[in-house]
Protein: SIS domain-containing protein
Organism: Halovulum marinum
Amino acid sequence: MTATTMMRREIDEIPAAAARLLDAAPQDRFRAVGRALGRIGPRAVVTVARGSSDHAATCLKYAIELSAGVPVSSVGPSVASIYGAALHLDRVVALGVSQSGRSGDLVALMRACRQGGAQTLTLTNSVDSPLAGAAATVLDLCAGPEHAVAATKSFTNSVLSGLWLLAYWRGDDGLQAALRAAPDRLQDALALTAAPLREELTRTDRLVVIARGPGLGIAAEVALKAMELCGIHASAHSSAEVLHGPSAILRDGFPVLALGEPAEAGLQDTIDRLEGQGARVLTAPAVTPLHRFLDPLLQLAPVYGALEAAARIRGRNPDRPEFLAKETLTV
Amino acid sequence: MTATTMMRREIDEIPAAAARLLDAAPQDRFRAVGRALGRIGPRAVVTVARGSSDHAATCLKYAIELSAGVPVSSVGPSVASIYGAALHLDRVVALGVSQSGRSGDLVALMRACRQGGAQTLTLTNSVDSPLAGAAATVLDLCAGPEHAVAATKSFTNSVLSGLWLLAYWRGDDGLQAALRAAPDRLQDALALTAAPLREELTRTDRLVVIARGPGLGIAAEVALKAMELCGIHASAHSSAEVLHGPSAILRDGFPVLALGEPAEAGLQDTIDRLEGQGARVLTAPAVTPLHRFLDPLLQLAPVYGALEAAARIRGRNPDRPEFLAKETLTV
């Protein structure tokens, strides 16, 4: 193929978009807002997001729970938009994540959070959007214009921006150092070959993606992209949870993509068990470990590439999947 | 078929199990613990659960968020068991839900919640289990012995027990009245025919289940049971979220089960849109509305029956799905 898709170009821009977060202006914002979070000492975090952005929020959920020890809840936007519940969110932070910031139900939920007393904060690529307007504080994802329907660089910058906030909130020098190294590491990761995965994605119509802890949001993101780009029925499960029921279907060559390092606690055992019952388990390209909150994101970069290539080989246009729009205005 | 499975007998016991919660002893416990919750005024709730019990927790998440307005977070057991995070849960309630109460990672998470200052509470069918021992307060699900691997009456009693607590916590007479009517309504619901759904479940190998708000946990439960009982690759999505990506696969006769009433805000629009792009949308048996927190549970009863029958027609043993055990001892 000679034509380059917008999606492929945007995947290639992931390292540059990540590097933009190191500039003085976004760093000043992350530092100020992160330190304010440290002073507030939130008792809980509520995330306000849909689709890919909700998966970015799941990545942040694990990072915040593991680092700050406070529970993070993804509240369904319908709680405000359909059911009109009154929320009580004293010393709770409401974190909106949205590329476009234009979904009406997210705006309604963010307003309900603010009325309920939450500190409201939005990570968005559209700082003049309605969702940005509904939050007291807005942070620019700095991903640059994104045209492909399938979000990629705005997804990675959503996760990175949230982690920058957390790094300043917690005064975590190790996480800050890892985040400074992230652009170069993402560039290295993009060069990894994911040929066996791409091959599988060109021919399968079903896929289960497994991961654990900080990798779960990435597994959900991969499953979503496999559906929207390749038309594959894909679902994501915790590599522990998968043994509680979903494993019943994982036989007779059913393809399973295992994210994470097989050396992680329990993952190799799960892979062995699934292979033993007949599943075909593929592993994601191995990356050089950087930080447990970032390693799943490094693994995602070459997987995005495999998904884009497989979509083209399947005769689909990765920039314009059927039935989907870049912005989904849900009620 | 003349042989009756344990699962079928346990489905038939759902109304009797629900009625047992109306007895004086469990009511005294629900009232005492629920009123204590009202006095504490929790700032957030953390749920500790896996598999079907985690889906029951999702049902309770929506009910608590809509009724009490506090965020509910399902914390991954690995947060404690693998990653050893210290949690800060002042004025937070940790709610364990487990049929057997024997999964080591749930016990570790419940202990971490207690160390973090949470009020700990477990709903379990095994009041002398390790998970019960890790919580300050234990409430018996009163489901009676459950032998089939696929949980049914313990699932419905998990949801009902949590709703009883909420009804006393909030002093909600309307919810209490609905809960008192639930056993009879569940009996009515079991008599509903779900023949078109059963037919579809006997022949499909893929299924997407959609629902919204209080129905989402039920959708996840139906998808899980379709996998473990019938070997169908099934996934559950919010009927709003489904338009953000998963809808790309819903064409060419892809079967979709829509839970809830088509009259719900947005559901009929979603159904129309999915049918317009070629999905085959089935609706669950219509139940007489009782309460928005209970209606999805009423709809589940005949769907359980359809899943059990379809498993048998597919030549599977609903009582002993391959590769699965009644208790999964995850680390």
Notes: The first strand of chain B starts at residue 44 and ends at 48. Chain B has 13 helices and nine strands.
